[in-house]
Amino acid sequence: AERDSNITLYHNGTRVLDNAVTSYDGTTCIREISLLLNGTMSSDAGNYTCVFTWGSIQHSSSVSVTVLPEACGGGISDVRFSTFGTSIGFTVGDIETIHCTANNAERDSNITLYHNGTRVLDNAVTSYDGTTCIREISLLLNGTMSSDAGNYTCVYNQGNAVQTSSVSVTIDELMSQPSINKRAVAAGSSTGGFVLLVIVFSIFFMMYLASHSIKYYLKWRLREPQYIFLIEGKEQRYVFDVFLSFAKEDKEVTERLIKEPLETRGYQVCWHHEDFMPGKTILENIEDNIRDSRKVLFMLSEDFFKSSYCMRELDTSIRKLKKTKTRCVVPILLRECEKLLPTDIKDLTYLDARSMNEKELIKITCDILGKPLRDFDSSSTVSSSEPEV
């Protein structure tokens, strides 16, 4: 976050806090705000919205808070299994769930499930339906066996109060043959399939890593030649014709409208999915690749101004524009967002992709970029007469 930004916290639309503080984790500034609820009350329930403001830019995030009453029950709980009656019939190999609930339960209560007198489960969870608390517990039988038959008892405890509910479970055999541990067979079969899947996945993953390792070796050990331009008596080295800055939501349209047409025409395009160097931080890659690019194309939309990385790329490019005094920044308007334009680029003429077809857009873009770097001799210095901004 920027140091002159702020955060405001709203509860059900009413502002309750705006004293955000700033911290620094070594790479970026963090703005944060905290509201202490010292003894929650029912009035604390509702919607909390956190609004981040920096100039004309706003982001928000909301969370819904439910406050459970201190005493959910206050009466005798209704403890029962989810299936009605006193007996249940399953078939060998079925996947079944034995589910027990206690309505009107206290929050400090618990439910324990017993099978033929042996405790098998006691991790009850609590939910709230707006009027009462519900404690519930579930036992999954993943492939029922004859040993799963018998009596299941659900015991609800709250202080000295104890209530129970029982159900009898029978398991029907599919055929009159020796009992087969289907759970073990299923486990063995699924384990074998899982191992085979892991082996196949590992082979493809290793092939993927090998191909990308070769790609990055060729890209970074044998990186594209640098082209040296002489701008106002100072040497400037370039690797790329253009750096593309866009929000992740606009990746596909940017690739279709700009990246692919430029590359087919011989331009060197810096595409962060392919050209950011492994091992460097994202911010280092942004700085280095914008420095090594003749132009920076900004694909502007509302999503662009919501992206912290796009804002960093914009800031870096504006600093380069002011330092080199060349027309290195080219805004392209993808969607309505003129009200969000910062002062530094508000006065720059932009290409409006909404009002022109794809051929017109790429033709004008190529005219702005000039001839590709590959058309120059990388072994000599090129005298550039790019006009000042």
Description:
There is one protein chain. β10 and β11 form a beta hairpin. By secondary structure, this protein is an alpha/beta fold. It is built from 8 helices and 23 strands. The radius of gyration is 33 Å and the shape is elongated. Strands 8-15-14-10-11 form a 5-stranded mixed sheet, with no helix packed on it. The chain has a 5-stranded parallel sheet with strand order 19-18-20-21-22. The chain has a 4-stranded antiparallel sheet with strand order 2-1-5-6, with no helix packed on it.
For the structure shown, list the relevant keywords.
single chain, 389 residues, alpha/beta, five-stranded mixed sheet, five-stranded parallel sheet, 23 strands
Oligomer: single chain
From the alpha carbons, calculate the radius of gyration and give it in angstroms.
33 Å
Using the alpha-carbon principal axes, give the shape.
elongated
Q: Could you list the spans in which at least 5 consecutive residues all have pLDDT below 50?
A: 175-180
Q: How many helical stretches? A: 8
Quick synopsis:
This protein has 389 residues and is an alpha/beta fold. The protein has eight helices and 23 strands.
Q: What topology emerges from the helices and strands here?
A:
Blueprint: E1 6-11, E2 14-17, E3 21-24, E4 29-32, E5 46-54, E6 57-65, E7 78-81, E8 87-91, E9 95-103, E10 110-115, E11 118-121, E12 125-128, E13 133-142, E14 150-158, E15 161-172, H1 182-220, E16 227-231, E17 234-238, E18 240-245, H2 251-264, E19 269-270, H3 272-275, H4 282-291, E20 293-300, H5 302-306, H6 308-324, E21 329-333, H7 343-346, E22 351-352, H8 358-369, E23 381-384
Parallel strand pairs: 8-15, 16-23, 18-19, 18-20, 20-21, 21-22
Antiparallel strand pairs: 1-2, 1-5, 3-4, 5-6, 7-9, 9-13, 10-11, 10-14, 12-13, 14-15, 16-17
Helix pairs in contact: 2-8, 4-6
